[in-house]
Amino acid sequence: MTSFTKLADDETPTIAVHPTRKVSQINPNIYAGFTEHMGRCIYGGIYDPGNPLSDENGFRKDVVDALKELNIPTVRYPGGNFCATYHWLDGVGPKDQRPSRPELAWLGTETNQFGTDEFMKWCETVGTEPYLCFNFGTGTLDEALAWVEYCNGTGNTYYANMRRKNGREEPYNVKYWALGNEVWGPWQVEQMTKEAYAHKALQWAKALKLLDPSLVLILCGQDGTASWDYYTLKQCLVPAHSALSTSAVPLIDMHSIHMYTSSNEHLPNATAPLAAERAIEITSALIDLARIENKVPPSQPRPTICFDEWNVWDPIRAEGSLGAEESYTLSDALAVAIWLNVFVRKSRDVGMACIAQTVNVISPLMTTKEGIIKQTTWWPLYLFSRFMRGWTVSAHVSCGVYEGETAPVWLRSAMDTPWLDVSASLGEDGYVDLVVVNINEKRGFETKIEGVRGPVDVYTVTGEGVQSTNMKGKEEVSIRESKWDGGVHYEFPKHSMTLMRWKAE
């Protein structure tokens, strides 16, 4: 949690860090990824048979190594909008018998050469945990139950035996399952009303938890600020052993929301992720409201928020049907850093967050036939995933504010937009980590820092200007490492992200 006091721009900013004041634990799943059958994310991204950079399974080894650097705990699959017409049985068994199908989400052809077993093997190679999304468009409940049985079944049953026949004896034990994706959207095959979705989601959840009570089921929300979110939570967050659910365990464990931010102007672009912070706060309140109205007992675990699609994305400059390959700038990297600050600050409520996506498609990591490119947005993600773990701790910021236009427009009246955006954590290793993002593109800020104890390791992400990029053979944005003695004042450079790290007393 970070509190804020507005100052005039000519006053000296202050950041006070309180490492002994633990606020909430940071779930490692806030650094989760997302792979969808879209553009070059799967084919030519994580899976590229025949390329000399790929292993015997067709997995790009350079991509695997890069993702291991991020220590990604969970990866969502197979979408995304792709889910609404995806039938998992098309993607298992002998590859020469798998059918190619028209793909309606991104208007391509799906060869099904990469499916459930390939994804599971890839997850094991990367060292990450799978998160699967059910087909709530053209799919059926029987098909969903069969998929769970295929992945998790241990008995002498049809789909568990099919998995064994396909070469996997032991179950995959997939924990996380989404009850559809963006089914509220007009772009979605079998788009639903909130009433139709809530009814279907509750009935599916009952059946799925009968088959495997250990599943973590994730409700399909909108962006956290919509009537869809309130209605579905109200209808589906019901008490265990109630008139609507005889289950001994809660049916819904998490509520999914999605948001993408972007602007062609730097300051609206950099501040836009603060809209996600307000959305998380609203969603959290709606979860509490649904539990209050439905008389859910406090002994029943409170659902957390699964922010399973987030990133900087302008769908006009990076059209989805054309592969959505963004060329990111330093401005975008600062926006990603603020996105991640939001998840750390709101760690009490956020149980998972999946950057969309992991490779090539609006991604910090790009592949070529010869290697990989780490875009500007890779570096804040790398630093956060490496260091910002453990506990969110209290911090207070006093500084000036950006007072111009915001994107979305409503953000201007809903949130402060300070020049210095801050989060702080205390790791299990006893180190304090402080992230400060200076969004001002014209000036640095000499800042008084309270609660720091030297010596301090300093990691700075910046570039010559907010339009600096790492694409087209350039590497204009990277990490600069330095030391600081922990004195009273530190100047945060213009248009920069700074991570400070020191041993707690």
TrEMBL record:
UniProt keyword annotations, A-Z: Carbohydrate metabolism, Glycosidase, Hydrolase
Domain Alpha-L-arabinofuranosidase C-terminal span(s) in chain numbering: 308-496
One GO MF term: alpha-L-arabinofuranosidase activity
A Pfam entry, by short name: ASD1_dom
Coiled coil (UniProt feature): none
InterPro entries in the record: Alpha-L-AF_C (IPR010720), ASD1_cat (IPR055235), GH (IPR017853), Glyco_hydro_b (IPR013780)
GO biological process: arabinan catabolic process; L-arabinose metabolic process
Top EC category: hydrolase
Listed EC numbers: 3.2.1.55
Record-stated family: Belongs to the glycosyl hydrolase 51 family.
Function recorded in the entry: Alpha-L-arabinofuranosidase involved in the degradation of arabinoxylan, a major component of plant hemicellulose. Acts only on small linear 1,5-alpha-linked L-arabinofuranosyl oligosaccharides.
Annotated metabolic or biological route of this protein: Glycan metabolism; L-arabinan degradation
Reaction equations catalysed: Hydrolysis of terminal non-reducing alpha-L-arabinofuranoside residues in alpha-L-arabinosides
Protein name: non-reducing end alpha-L-arabinofuranosidase
